[in-house]
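From: lab user (bench 3)
To: helpdesk
Subject: output format question, protein + zinc ion

Hello, I'm new to running complex predictions and I'm not sure whether the block I got back is the full result or only part of it. Here's what I submitted:
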Amino acid sequence: MKRLSILIVAIVMAVMPLSAQKNPDLRYLPKQVPQRAEMILPQVKGYNIYKADFHVHTFYSDGDVSAKGRVTEAYYEGLDIIAITDHVEYRPYEQKMLRATQGYHKVLPTAKNYNITHKAADANGILADLNVPYEEAKKPAERLGMLAVPGVEITRHPDKVGHYNALFIKDANTIYDPDPAQSIRNAKKQGALIMHNHPGWKRKTVDMNEFHQQVYGEGLIDGVEIVNGGSFGSKLIKRCLDNKLFMAAATDAHSTTHYIYDGRGYFRTCTFVLAKELSLKAVKEALVKDRTLAYAYDNVIGSEELVREFFNNSVKMNVAYTSSKGEKTIVFTNMTSIPMRLRRAAKGEGALLNPFQSISFKVAKDKDLTFTVLNLWTADEEHPKGMNLKVAYKAKDLK
Ligand SMILES: [Zn+2]
Ligand SMILES: [Zn+2]
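Helpdesk reply: Thanks, we reran it on our side. This is the complete output you should expect:
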């Protein structure tokens, strides 16, 4: 009996929070354990889908949070991969920190490494260690089972040059050059992949300017951020398909992300990476082979091949009933966290197929079932004609 009571005490001690053991006066309210949002997605082409944000900022450039904070936030918002991509040439918080710590840094009172956008590196050059944000993110990411990808954002005039993320870099400190094309080349020499960020930002078009033509022409660009936060450059789908570039969606978060996404009932803007495993090698390979889908606000964007398989593996179809006149009742079940906005071709009727729910359609004898999935995008023609995924089931296939 004594043994049993010792055992019970041991079990109670084991399941009690450590702090409660220390302080019996504290009570613990329910729901104290933080929950990670899980976006349930199908396999596509036999690959797992990993959720990645390849573009966020920290207070090491002009973001409001730490690198470790970015990792924690991304984890609880359901991401698997994060690249901290602080600006190489624009780091206003550094100036503030230099001011705040000037007593300790008598040697640096004249440091000019604050906002050198549009300017050549001067005699002071870039004094900061630009590898720190990645180093600060790497371990916390590993502990959460996430993958941190080393990266930076090359940041020049938004219209004349634009912004470029260098991902999978080896050393952030040897990328800068006054010539932006040379900066990109320096990153490529390290084996980096280059993503052209927000090509329409602070411009009147997403079309290419002279600089873009030069760097795309040189083969320096590997992917395009077709969605930045909530702004979607649909014309860029064609550019990616024509030039074999990966399509990405990223938050470009500077502040915290909660109030923009999950606070409003959405998963966070991210890139779906189709990879065998969660490793730098496998994720990089997926980007090189353009095995990505862009996700933002319930929209999924990519090549028709990948988007079609994504839909087919997300939505299960079965015939629930066939009437004596041969009319079929077809049930669609959505097995994923992404709602599907369907519009049936025949009557133009719309139907929202919510996550983990079913809806049914009636199909007359020998009639095909054809509809458009309005939130799956495969081309860039005028909305809504021809832009979205078309799905057609032949009567003979409706089983
Ligand atoms: Zn940018
Ligand atoms: Zn940015």
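A quick orientation on your result: The radius of gyration is 25 Å. Let us know if anything else is unclear.
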